[in-house]
C-alpha cells in the first residue's frame, strides 16, 4: 500500500501528550489543509476556534466530562458548524435568505467534519497525535457561551493536537465485508459476532485481562438511554430550526 493509505490505517486516538508545542506555522498549515476538504457548493460552512486561554481549556475539559487532555495537549481546536457567515454573505447580495432548514444543519455539520478530518490526516502525517472530543455536546450551551458563539453557529466537536507521549495499538474495525454492500442493503449475517470476539481479545490484551467487554456491549450506553436529549432544543435555539 502507498504511504497515505498506510497512514490512514494507522490512526489511533492519543490522550497523553509531551510538553512540546506545535509551531504556529505548522498549525496554520494544518488548518489550510483542512480548508482544502470538499465542501457542499463551496459554502465552507465552518469556523474553528483555537482555544489558547488555559483557564478556558480547563473549563472545557470539565464541561466535556473531565477530559484532562484538553488542557494538556499542545493545541485545542473547536470545530463549529457555521451558517452565519454564508447566509449573511448571501443576504448582502439581496437574497431573501431562508434560515433554519434541516439541510443547512446537515451541510454545516458535514462541512465541519470533513474539514476536521483533513486537519487530522495532515497532523498525523507530521507525527502529531489527535483526539476528537465529542463531549463538547454534553454542555453545548455553556461551551457556546464560553466561546461567544453567535446564533446559527454551534460547536460540533473539539480536537486535541500535540506530540504523542504514548503509543497505543490501533483499535480494530469491523471487517470490510460487514460494511461494504453491493447495490442493496444486506442484513447482518454473522460478522458482528466475529468482530465481538476480536474486540474482546483486544480489550483483554490492552488491559492485562482486566476488561471483559466487546463492541456490542460497549454500545449499550449509546442506545439504552436517551443520549444528549438536550441537543434538539439547543440547536433550535441556535437558529437551526430543522424546518
Automatic annotation (TrEMBL):
Q: Which UniProt keywords apply?
A: Flavoprotein, FMN, NADP, Oxidoreductase
The chain positions of domain Nitroreductase read 9-163
The question of whether Cell cycle is a record keyword is answered with no
Q: Which InterPro entries match?
A: Flavin_OxRdtase_Frp, Nitroreductase, Nitroreductase-like
The reply on keyword Metal-binding is no
* Superkingdom classification of source: Bacteria
Q: Which Pfam families match?
A: Nitroreductase
Q: List, alphabetically, the NCBIfam families matched.
A: PRK10765.1
Query: Which family, according to the similarity comment?
Result: Belongs to the flavin oxidoreductase frp family.
Q: What is this protein called?
A: Oxygen-insensitive NADPH nitroreductase
User: What gene does the UniProt entry assign to this protein?
Assistant: nfsA
Amino acid at each position: 500500500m502507498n504511504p497515505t493509505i498506510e497512514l490512514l490505517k494507522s490512526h489511533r486516538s492519543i490522550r497523553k501528550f509531551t510538553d512540546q508545542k506545535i509551531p504556529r506555522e505548522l498549525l496554520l498549515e494544518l488548518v489550510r489543509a483542512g480548508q482544502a476538504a470538499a465542501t457542499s457548493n463551496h459554502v465552507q460552512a465552518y469556523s474553528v476556534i483555537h482555544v489558547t486561554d488555559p483557564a478556558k481549556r480547563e473549563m472545557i475539559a470539565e464541561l466535556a466530562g473531565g477530559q484532562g487532555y484538553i488542557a494538556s495537549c499542545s493545541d485545542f481546536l473547536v470545530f463549529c458548524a457555521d451558517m452565519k457567515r454564508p447566509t449573511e454573505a448571501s443576504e448582502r447580495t439581496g437574497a431573501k435568505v431562508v434560515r433554519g432548514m434541516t439541510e443547512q444543519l446537515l451541510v454545516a455539520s458535514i462541512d465541519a467534519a470533513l474539514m476536521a478530518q483533513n486537519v487530522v490526516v495532515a497532523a498525523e502525517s507530521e507525527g502529531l497525535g489527535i483526539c476528537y472530543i465529542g463531549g463538547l455536546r454534553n454542555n453545548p450551551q455553556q461551551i457556546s457561551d464560553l466561546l461567544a458563539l453567535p446564533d446559527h453557529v454551534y460547536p460540533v466537536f473539539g480536537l486535541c493536537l500535540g506530540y504523542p507521549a504514548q503509543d497505543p495499538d490501533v483499535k480494530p474495525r469491523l471487517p470490510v465485508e460487514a460494511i461494504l454492500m453491493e447495490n442493496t442493503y444486506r442484513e447482518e449475517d454473522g460478522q458482528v459476532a466475529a468482530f465481538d470476539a476480536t474486540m474482546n481479545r483486544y480489550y483483554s490484551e490492552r488491559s492485562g485481562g482486566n476488561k471483559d467487554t466487546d463492541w456490542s456491549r460497549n454500545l449499550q450506553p449509546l442506545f439504552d438511554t436517551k443520549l444528549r436529549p438536550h441537543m434538539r432544543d439547543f440547536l433550535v435555539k441556535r437558529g437551526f430550526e430543522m424546518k
